[in-house]
Every structure is written in C-alpha cells, then in structure tokens.
Write a structure and sequence with these properties.
Strand content: 15-25%
Distance between the termini: 35 Å
Radius of gyration: 17 Å
Largest sheet: 7 strands, parallel
Helix content: 40-55%
Strand order of the largest sheet: 3-2-1-4-5-6-7
Order of helices and strands: EHEHEHEHEHHEHHHE
Structural class: alpha/beta
Number of strands: 7
Number of helices: 9
Shape: globular
C-alpha cells in the first residue's frame, strides 16, 4: 500500500527516464499525483511512462538554459506542487589544462540547470501556495572523488543552492536534497564494474543501493510527513560516510 497522499497535486520529475526517476514516479503516481516526466531521451521516456500506473505525462528536453527549464514547468499545464530535480551528468574528469569541456558540462548540467529549474518553478507557482523542491546531490560533494573533480565540485555547489533556497522560500516551499551513494543505475554501471568489491566494502551495509531506496526518501520529502524538514541534505548511502 502506498502511504503517500498526493491527490490533486502535480509533480515534475526531471531525469524521469532514469532508474531513480522511474521509481520516484511510481511512488508519486501511486499516491495520486499527476507526474510530469522530463528527460532528453524520447524512447526511454516513453518506456518509463509505460511502466508507471497512474496519471503520467512526458516532456522531452535537455533543460539547457532558462527558456528550456521554463518550458518544462509549463508543460505540466497546471500549478506545480513539487519539483524533483534528478537530471544530471556523471563523467570522469581528465584534469588536463587543455580539456575544459568536462568541467563546463558538469557545472552546466549539474549546477546551473538546478538553479534554472528552481527559478522556473518559482516563477510559475502560485505565490503563497505550499510546495516542495527536492534536488539530487551526491556523497562525492562532501567526500570528493579523485577522478570526478568537476562532478564533485558541481554537486557541492548544490548544497549551497539548497540551503539558500530553503531560506528564500520559507515557509511556503520546503527545499531539501538527497545525496545518494553508489546506486545501481545505468549512470553508475561503469564505476561499479571498475571498482568491484571496493564499492560494496566501503559501505556499512556491505551492499549497493537500489533506485527505489532513494525514491522512498524523495517521496517522503514531497509528502506531508516532511512538513518540518527543510534545508537538509539527506545521505542515502548505506553508511558509506561512516567509514
């Protein structure tokens, strides 16, 4: 039984065709929400929507720039209660003086787009109405990652964005983030293969995380049960940071 009540509420999920995005949409839709999935991959987006029971619509976009982000929010065709921003890019950083494109993409996709989506959400929402924003950062933001310096930096920037927005929009809109560890998704398949047992050995639970385990936390943050949770970065990592 789904314990979340989102009847009559519209929730936008970016990165909606990804592993965590699909699991989030399942929970939100089962709770009665109208879920708008946003992703640049048309076929994957259609497959995701087909796997979810409930009211689900889609919008194809790479979310590059304020206009694209505003169009994504507008695609909901009704006031948006919550923004779940999962869209992001995870690629290794060569850390060479002549290669700057990885840095530029990391800042654009993982940080600036989050800012642009927050602005679009604020511009379109009913002023004074209750709302939620949930962003996705990473444990790399706090721990750092030697091969993903640009990614880690961009995700660390999200911590400042979340806490600033939480103060700016309080008390109407609650703003939080989840910081997953290594979760079994398409995005992390290569690093899991490369690092092998090192990944699981680095967690207190001794296993990798599943997309639905992150989705449960996100759904909670969107729910009435999280009415006194604001400006938090919640780590969903199996205890990785404890070692």
């Amino acid at each position: 039984m789904n314990r979340y009540g989102f009847q009559g509420k519209t929730i936008v999920v970016t990165g909606g065709a990804g592993g965590i995005g699909v699991e989030c949409a399942k929970l939100l839709a089962a709770g009665g929400a109208h879920v708008l999935l946003v992703d640049p991959r048309t076929e994957a987006l259609e497959a995701a929507a087909g796997a979810i029971d409930g009211l689900v619509t889609t919008h194809v976009s790479d979310l590059v720039g304020p206009k694209a982000c505003a169009a994504a929010i507008a695609a909901a065709s009704q006031p948006v209660y919550a923004l779940v921003h999962l869209a992001g890019l995870f690629e290794p950083d060569p850390f060479e003086p002549t290669v700057q494109d990885v840095w530029d993409r990391a800042i654009q996709v993982n940080l600036k787009t989050a800012y642009d989506m927050a602005v679009a959400f604020d511009q379109a929402r009913e002023q004074g109405a209750e709302g939620r924003m949930v962003f996705t950062t990473s444990i790399a933001a706090g721990r750092g990652s030697p091969d993903y310096a640009a990614y880690s930096t961009a995700k660390a920037g999200l911590h400042g964005l979340v806490r600033s927005l939480a103060k700016k929009f309080s008390p109407d809109v609650l703003v939080n983030a989840v910081a997953p560890g290594i979760i079994v998704t398409r995005m992390t398949s290569e690093i899991i293969q490369q690092r092998g047992n090192y990944v699981t050995d680095g967690t207190v639970l001794g296993r990798l995380g599943q997309p639905e385990e992150v989705a449960q936390v996100i759904a909670f943050l969107c729910s009435d049960g999280a009415s006194y949770v604001n400006s938090q970065i919640i780590q969903v990592d199996g205890g990785t940071v404890l070692r």
